[in-house]
Specification:
Layout lengths: L8 E4 L5 H12 L3 E4 L4 H11 L5 E4 L7 H15 L4 E2 L12 H28 L3 E6 L13 H20 L4 E8 L8 H8 L1 H9 L9 H12 L10 E4 L10
Parallel strand pairs: 1-2, 1-4, 2-3, 4-5, 5-6, 6-7
The chain binds NADP nicotinamide-adenine-dinucleotide phosphate.
The site of NADP nicotinamide-adenine-dinucleotide phosphate has 28 residues, from α1 and α6.
Length: about 250
């Protein structure tokens, strides 16, 4: 199948590691021009070096998406340098954690508000160029009880609602909005490696609860993000694609 991604201009904040880094790698392989960031200047510089010489190109600089003015400036800079934007993939997270008031604020600001701000910047540019695709990275922890009551699950859940409503609003401008909700994904240096090292019993239970007895990989999520973000998914909008190897047990109607 031809995804039709060659030459697409893609903005992916918070993308030097894990799932989104894999998305960046795959988009470059498809011949896209991709803008990346993370909070660390060194990591962004190293990532850009690693990405150079591929079929597509990569640009970027350090930016904390939680800093409203710098994040909005970064987005505008990236749009200008790319000459527009066709695809936006916001997937930053403050992560899970204790059910404290501080975590609720942090999750709201990082996970929700930065996504809303990002959409508000990129949508006018997409309208100008006749359309685009926006793919949020959400989580199965929003669609089934998981890990106890906490801001992460609820705030990511609010993005599912926002994405659906946004898809209705911008559909007539040729812009599709979808979510990809991964289950637990294992990679070196990721949260599940940390949980394996510090909460081995719980990690083993989560692993066993997967029908295939293992966690997913960044690549298995990235494959789905690329499809949903590509012109090949032209008739898919307002959906939430669960990518969890059957980990969640609900029936999806
Ligand atoms: N891993 C999983 O099992 C899993 C499961 C379901 C959903 N998800 C979701 O998938 C997304 C990616 O998670 P991941 O586990 O693959 O990666 P991750 O370990 O959360 O790292 C993601 C990237 O985000 C950057 N980052 C974090 N905070 C930032 C900020 N404020 N501003 C700019 N960059 C920032 C990090 O770089 P710096 O630290 O250098 O800034 C890193 O490059 C998240 O939304 C997560 O909730 C993950």
């Amino acid at each position: 199948m031809e995804l039709g991604l060659k030459g697409k201009r893609v903005i992916i904040p918070a993308s030097t590691k894990g799932i989104l880094r894999r998305v960046v790698d795959q988009l470059i392989d498809e011949g896209c021009d991709v803008a990346i960031c993370s909070r660390s200047e060194d990591t962004v510089a190293r990532t850009l070096r690693e990405l150079s010489g591929g079929k597509g190109s990569a640009i970027g600089r350090a930016c904390d998406v939680n800093d409203k003015s710098d994040y909005e400036a970064w987005l505008e800079e990236m749009v200008e340098q790319l000459g527009g934007v066709d695809i936006f993939i916001p997937g930053v997270s403050a992560g899970g954690g204790a059910d404290s008031e501080r975590n609720w604020w942090k999750s709201f600001e990082v996970d929700v508000l930065s996504t809303v701000r990002g959409c508000e910047v990129v949508i006018p540019h997409m309208r100008e160029s006749g359309g685009g695709a926006i793919t949020f990275i959400t989580t199965t922890a929003s669609v089934e009880t998981f890990g106890g009551p906490q801001a992460y699950n609820a705030m990511k859940g609010s993005l599912l609602v926002y994405a659906k409503q946004l898809s209705q609003e911008v559909g007539r401008d040729g812009i599709r909005v979808n979510c990809v909700s991964p289950g637990p994904i294992y990679f070196e240096g990721g949260v599940w490696q940390m949980l394996k090292d510090t909460m081995a019993k719980w990690f083993a239970k989560v692993e066993k609860d997967h029908p295939s007895g293992r966690l997913g990989t960044p690549e298995e999520v990235s494959n789905c993000v690329l499809f949903l973000s590509s012109p090949a998914a032209s008739w898919v909008s307002g959906t939430n694609l669960i990518v969890d190897g059957g980990f969640t047990k609900r029936v999806q109607f």
